[in-house]
Fold:
Amino acid sequence: MNVPLLDLKTQYKPLREETRKLVDDILDSQYFIGGPYVAKLEEEVAKYSETKAAIGISSGTDALLASLMAIGISPSPLDRSEPAEVILPTYTFFATAGCVWRAGAKPVFVDIDKDTYNIDVDAIEAKITPRTKAIMPVHLYGQCANMEKIREIADKYNLAIIEDGAQAIGARRNGKRVGNFGDCACLSFFPSKNLGGLGDGGMVVTNNLELADKIRQMRNHGMEPKYYHKFVGGNFRLDAIQAAGLLVKLPHLDKWGQMRRSNASQYNEAFAGIDKIKTPFIESQNYSIYNQYIISVENRDEVMNYLRSKNIGCEIYYPVPLHMQECFAGLGYKMGDFPNAEYAATHTIALPIYPELTSEQISYVASSVKEAVAKF
Ligand SMILES: *Cc1c(COP(=O)(O)O)cnc(C)c1O
Structure:
């Protein structure tokens, strides 16, 4: 048997005709940037997210950057005072921290909770200084961070909250969807995310209409009206072909989320009672959409090699926590600063969890993992 980490071709097959029809329509119209498909997608994603507004952006990364710029964090060369600081977890995809840096602010890292892999909310307050402007929690692997506690801290110190929801469209916490906790949330439509486009794409969702306006201007060079620039933005626009591809997929997203959850349950059952395999811990407040299914094992690299020898796709998200990345060496962190993140980086494996997995494939992966941990 062969089980890839992700299989987008199977998902595409039943959507092929509809997708090609819309793409053809865009080719005929020669209207490639913005336009009716982008407007329609924004309306549908806002509805789906249960937020007041959604702004289509060129990628999840640009959504984070545009949001930071829109809340007033700026890389202006005229501002040589101490940089603003933004608090974020050290264990996430690089973009979360890269955007903080590119916006001219200093990333201030915090460890993760060892069970959820999300930001350790008890470690945030100690990192707040007079220069702290925002907290960027990441809803990692499809599970929301502890947003009640983060809201409490943000209110106490008057900080903005930008949710990195790149892995969490459709996830809920206490019934609320991503984008309803912070000032805004940033979504990614990178093809491997739960809602993947035909290339790069992203979105900001928010209930703050003033902020939505500012982000809308920010994505188009801070321009309003045409050729008049109130502030410096960028080219963060979403193109029509992406919007069309996403409009075809969005109606299936909840069903795909349920399929991922049912796959996760099958793994959980297969691994139940095996001490050597730590399965995902989902807080009772959370409805996870399992962008990834992460296990933690003692001899991770041996286990991964074994799985690969059995033609099972698996991956490490992420092998190097951000505080240990070379580009951030100047921030002065060292190994040992964030033990939970460092532990996760050396012990976790992502197993295939995509919706179209068959029950036979899951059984095969699960028994191979069990064989591996018995061996190593
Ligand atoms: C994917 C991802 C991003 C970046 O999204 P892109 O659309 O690839 O730019 C940001 N943060 C997290 C946590 C991600 O997983």
Remarks:
- The chain is about 35% helix and 15% strand.
- The radius of gyration is 21 Å.
- The CA atoms of residues 135 and 167 lie 17 Å apart.
- The chain has a mean pLDDT of 97.
